[in-house]
Amino acid sequence: MKVLVTGADGFIGKNLQLHLDEKKGFEVVPFTREHNEQDLAGLLRGVDWIVHLAGINRPQDPSEFRIGNAGLTQVLCDAVEATGRIVPIIYSSSIQAERDNEYGSSKREAEDALLALNKANGNPVYIYRLPNVFGKWARPNYNSAVATFCHNIARDLPVQINDPDAMVNLVYVDDVIASFLRVLEGEAQSTPFVGVEPVYQITVGELASQLYRFKATRDNLITERVGSGLVRALYSTYVSYLPPESFTYTVPQHGDERGVFVEMLKTPDAGQFSFFTAHPGVTRGGHYHHSKTEKFLVIKGEACFRFRHMITGEFYELYTSGTRPEIVETVPGWTHDISNVGEDELVCMLWANEIFDRQNPDTFACPVGTEA
Known about the structure:
CATH superfamily of the largest domain: NAD(P)-binding Rossmann-like Domain
Strand order of the largest sheet: 2-1-3-4-5-8
Structural class: alpha/beta
Order of helices and strands: EHEHEHEHEEHEHEEHHEEEEEEEEEEE
CATH class of the largest domain: Alpha Beta
Number of domains: 2
Radius of gyration: 29 Å
Oligomer: single chain
């Protein structure tokens, strides 16, 4: 399937092209700033779909709104009509089309041109009145507060907030592209106006605060809840604005004669992740917890775990190694330790169900001893 994408080198266009490249059976025909309106007739040959993303939203002269939005769209409609073919069109309009300003009027005129083409020739038209779209590859310091904030905060540059209580409506670029793809792949639509879900609402002040919390993760090691919803999308976006020299960062390492202990990541309500090493013959641990639980995974070396029940004295011992992915779980009320019984360094991953609290560690020294 051949898809003509106007504005293919723009923010949404780049994301769409990459998604289409991942799918079999799609061929992108790009229309970019390097082309002019006269190129459209040639580019339309054999095209099965059009995704019309090109437009003007930040001109030096307001008259450019009409030329770049309504004017270009009318030229596209005329070129499509001249082919004599029924080519469906997806159009990225704006919620500004509902408002009485020069940008909104130009987008509304572009919509009208497409609807007129649909009425005259039957070309299916799918119009997206998009709110603010955010995600990777949006241009900072242009027309996206999310892109600007991410870019600046990632580089320790200041951000300007005129009204922290101002509410913004946002859609994530991956959700926009997913909706485009559903239409391209034949999912039925009952109206020429198509929406993208979910639409997120957040104040400008909270947006900036959230991004600063992402940045702080590298110092406090406490991750935000980045697994779903707006926080997930914002975190992916923020990370995409990191310069390459910031792709890495160090975390604290604590070492002694036994080996090293390194905390990697902490969560607000699901514990923390770390790893430790132990030299041959070294035993670590020798303590119990009332409530804290842990999961150990030996990824290198040979280990012996020993457990003793604090009341009954019941003893249990097990061996594991980095040659098999086996989790060893500690149980409240059992004192436990781990010994390196191999000839090489022991490396072990560790998850604890709560962040270590020095004021209330729930960790009480008690040697396991030997089996009675």
